[in-house]
Amino acid sequence: MSEVTNDRDGGRTPRRWNPLARAARCGEALHAWRTRRHGHAPPAHDTGGAPPSPEPAAVESVLWRMRTTVRDEPGALAALCTALAERRVDILSLQTHPLGAHTVDEFLLRVPAGTDLTAAVAAGGGTDTWAERADAHDLVDGPTRMLGLAARTATDAAELPLVLRQLLGRCTIRSQPAAAFGAGPAAVPPEGVLEDTVIRLRDPEGGVLTVERPYLPFTPTEFARARALVELDARLGPRMPGGRDVLALPEGGHVSVRRADTADLDAARAMHERCSAETLRRRYHGPVGDAIRYLNHLLSPRFGRTLAAQTDSGDIVALGHLLWDGDETEVALIVEDAWQRRGIGAELLSRLVGMAVEAGCAHVYAVTQASNTAMVAAMRGLGLPLDYQVEEGTLVITARLAPAPSARTPEAGERAARH
């Protein structure tokens, strides 16, 4: 066998193949490769030995919910997204709400810390911009979120104000008699009314349900979703999670603890009639004769949740209320005289605070008299940070609540139903 090479004249000259020479050349190449592979000074372009290229330091980012308005024309939204991308803002979700010549766009954003988000949006053509910090719970997609809110509404009539607030953000929700608007039930049409920052809907319990959010106008989509939840509540009628727990008392005997509502009005009135004037005065801070008039409001699930302690004979001996009060949440207790100092009030308070935590409340407060040592002891027994304010003998104790360990789960919902 021979090799063929080209000479300078373009001819082909046969050359004898020498296996020893070929082996020597291969050995030299292998030796050179090993020297290069394991030597002390590899070439700079050798990625095995070159120092790692510097990488940009990780930048902390935060979640924001933002709403802004752009013109409803081709390229307007693209310009806004481009302006955000130039500042390395990550768009996690987007919803658009067409409004005539303009479109309101809602974003969930991951924003590098220190970014001037307002300036970025303005550079992209956005106007009337509103933003607030978000958290991981906001990462749930819209349809899933609405199904969850509908499920909560279907389970418990007391959930309607809470789900509306979770749907619409920071807002004030009031249930008022229709007579306050001077026209009876016809004060609000069946489809409701949307007036910029105010939504009015027919309350399923009669009257008018008013939702106000002065810092941000409601969109037609938000109005439609709120109306759907209220209609669901109306169709299902009065309802309350069933179940009760047996509470053993330290001195013997037991009572059962369950949810209560306006169906328990007669039993609650009977308990108040058995209470002393001093017990009623400590609870209601006013004329004793007015106490019973408050019960229908206190027991209504539209304004909060109520727990009752009940004996085997069916007598209610204690009531605990968790009352939605704008951004604040009030707790209140009354225990019949013969059943005081037996741990019933403390147990009801602990359960009410647990409900407040599951509802996402940041604080609960109790209004009592400075001389009401039983209520003070019950609040201290929660083991939570407390703030005290005293004015003219009235004591307001505010407890700062630890957030729930995770988002509401079916298991959490079942626990709330049992309570």
Automatic annotation (TrEMBL):
Species for this entry: Streptomyces tunisiensis
Domain N-acetyltransferase: start-end pairs: 255-403
Descriptive protein name: GNAT family N-acetyltransferase
TM regions (residue ranges): none
A Pfam family recorded for this sequence: Acetyltransf_1
Alphabetical list of SUPFAM superfamilies matching this protein: ACT-like (SSF55021), Acyl-CoA N-acyltransferases (Nat) (SSF55729)
Lineage, opening ranks: Bacteria, Bacillati, Actinomycetota, Actinomycetes, Kitasatosporales
Keyword 4Fe-4S: no
Record-linked PROSITE patterns: ACT, GNAT
InterPro entries named among the record's database cross-references: ACT-like_dom_sf (IPR045865), ACT_dom (IPR002912), Acyl_CoA_acyltransferase (IPR016181), Bact_Acetyltransf (IPR050832), GNAT_dom (IPR000182)
Region annotation Disordered: where it falls in the sequence: 1-20
Keywords: Acyltransferase, Transferase
CDD domains: NAT_SF
Composition bias, Basic and acidic residues: 1-12
Acyltransferase keyword on record: yes
Signal peptide: none
Occurrences of domain ACT (ranges): 65-136
Gene3D superfamilies reported for this sequence: 3.30.70.260, 3.40.630.30
